Amino acid sequence: MKDISGLFGLQYPIVQGGMIWCSGWELAAAVSNAGGLGTIGSGSMYPDVLRDQIRKCKAATDRPFAVNLPLIYPQVADHIQIILEEKVPVVITSAGNPKLYAETFKSAGCKLIHVVSSSKFAIKAQEAGCDAVVAEGFEAGGHNGREETTTLCLIPQVVDAVTIPVIAAGGIADGRSMLAAFALGAQGVQMGSRFVACIESSAHEAFKQAVIAAKEGDTHLTLKEITPVRLLNNPFADQVRLAYHNGATNDELKALLGRGRAKKGMFEGDMIDGELEIGQVSARLDNIYSAKQIIDQTMVEFKTAFQKMSL
After folding, report:
1. 78-98 residues labelled b (16+ CB within 10 A) or e (exposed)
2. Which of 22, 151, 205, 227 has the most CB atoms lying inside 10 A of its own CB?
3. Per-domain residue ranges for the chain?
């Protein structure tokens, strides 16, 4: 079965999402050591913090790992320089145009993946020289595509549109959903929410507990006028809904969001006033496991489901 393992030097075709405030070096190293592609989420890090995280990750694993780089980050140039100096093997870009930096990364020997929410952007990523794309469906947590295309619809559309490997994301948290993504033509999967509720995740324990307590319908996509984001229900999310009900302007929504909301919620554990970004699949999570347990269990479930389908 064709997958991304050979391309990135992995044991298993599983990529850990680079979730803001949840993806430090401990999680990235643990996922890579367990056979997947661990990812440091740089979107919440100052340049000096990112360098320290990369160095700690390199000391903790001898396997490939990635840095997720949101291209809208104010100090993106500093982050790129650090990534190049530290010889990070894989870069996953998001929220911007990878063409601006593709040649820089490729000439330095970095493998480049770009996160997309449509076949149109997947084609542009391929034309820019990306080695693979992460096609992320509407179910995913955090910042999402405006198209609201579900994973089930998105993956085959992207697979048919490009020739580079497609990594499926959004609503994937176990071996059954991984198998479904492969049946749609994906060659690997990215899991984000499943790794938020992980022992090695840098998310606050209160946030982890809120994630595994989530039920169906406890998340919703909102703030599309600013930047679409999927939030877990809490008093802050209620404030956002009330603002919409009262006809808030974009400026009023930005003022409500303010600065540091995500850090307050996901990293510091403020379940009242914090922004809690998580995917719909949180309703299926019932426990906090180690990265190795998650990956091992996923692969057992994948093989079991595949065998059942083959009967």
Report:
1. ebbebbbeeebbbbbbbbbeb
2. 22
3. 7-202+288-310, 205-281
